[in-house]
């Protein structure tokens, strides 16, 4: 459950950075909050994630997509969220 809460918190943080902290105007945030409610995430955790994203000390998370080819010519497409794109490419 903690792993799911962590994922949802990151989702909320990314949504706030992308479109602001008002769920009425930020549909991505509204959907993330609905996901949090569906997972029975405490309201305090949701508010903390929003506050963390709007603060000056917020981490800079980015959504990145990678594509490549695996064995046998199979196409591979990876979407990920990272705070360090250089490290993510190396892994």
From TrEMBL:
GO (cellular component) term, any one: cytoplasm
Domain TACO1/YebC-like N-terminal: 2-55
Top-level division of the source organism's lineage: Eukaryota
InterPro entries for this protein: Integrase-like_N, TACO1_YebC-like_2nd/3rd_dom, TACO1_YebC_N, Transcrip_reg_TACO1-like, Transcrip_reg_TACO1-like_dom3, YebC-like
Keyword terms: Cytoplasm, DNA-binding, Transcription, Transcription regulation
Coiled-coil ranges (or none): none
GO-annotated molecular function: DNA binding
Entry keyword Cell membrane: no
UniProt keyword Cell membrane present: no
Domain named TACO1/YebC-like second and third: residues: 62-91
Family: Belongs to the TACO1 family.
Protein name per the record: Uncharacterized protein
